[in-house]
Amino acid sequence: METKLLDGKRISAEIKAELAGRSELWKRRGIQPGLAVLLVGDHPASHVYVSSKVKTCAELGYVSRKILLPADAGIDELLGEIERLNGDDAVHGILVQLPLPAGMDTEKVLQAIDPRKDVDGFHPFNVGRLCSGSPGLVPCTPAGILQMLKRSGIAIQGRRAVVLGRSNIVGKPTAMLLLQEHATVTLCHSRTRDLPAVCREADILVAAIGRTAMVTADFIRPGAVVVDVGINSLRDREEVVRLFGEESPRREEFSRKGYTLVGDVHPAEVLGRAGWFTPVPGGVGPMTIAMLMWNTAEAAARIHGLPWE
Ligand code: GUN
Question: Is residue 29 scored above 90 in pLDDT?
Fold first, then answer.
């Protein structure tokens, strides 16, 4: 069976081009979407993510603010920054990069963000709106998955969707969005009995469990749409050979960089069995940042009373 590519790189570029066009139009009316990103501490991966968000803002003609706090900053300092940004008219989106340093109350921090500026969609107000099917800001990765499916012409209504992984960031909101699109949804996780059999029921399988190549051929119904949300850094040479073979370009990449990225889906076993798949990298990853830009524009539109479809 031919396994078609769900091309996150292409689709995210398409979305960003649309947003850049809209931002250009708004500029003539004196409106420029603004995103503030707060980062506490020196989590190395977080710095990379934050820089890439700031760079994308510049590409789309948005204003961005990067606010760095030291690892030993207290929660009151962070809450003070959020309060200030809540009242800043040039800022339409506020994102606190997670994870926060150990011991900092993440719930309390997320709840301090004005729900109208909550571009991560993590505030209980927006979580509630999503669960009740009302318009609101939707978490970026789940929103990106839906855009990928829709823009690739994949039908959702009436189909069986299985979401593997129950995180607040991906699993739960993705299940809600698929349900809203009239899929029949199963949300399963590491303690589900006979996971492969449950996943094999899926016409659309979303793997977001954070375990390298866990989804093997026996999880996949032939012809299924397989969306891989996992981003796992593989640092073991033998494992790279086991997953990609001796001759793969990944071997070369691994020798050069000392790691390669692998999803939650076994990269060789999905090919020839699924109908569609998202590669890692280049699948869901680029969609997340495009949807953050989308949410920032959507928040700006609501705040300024501009139309948003
Ligand atoms: N860290 C990893 N993923 C995310 C995300 O989607 N939002 C935030 N704020 N932090 C993250």
Answer: yes
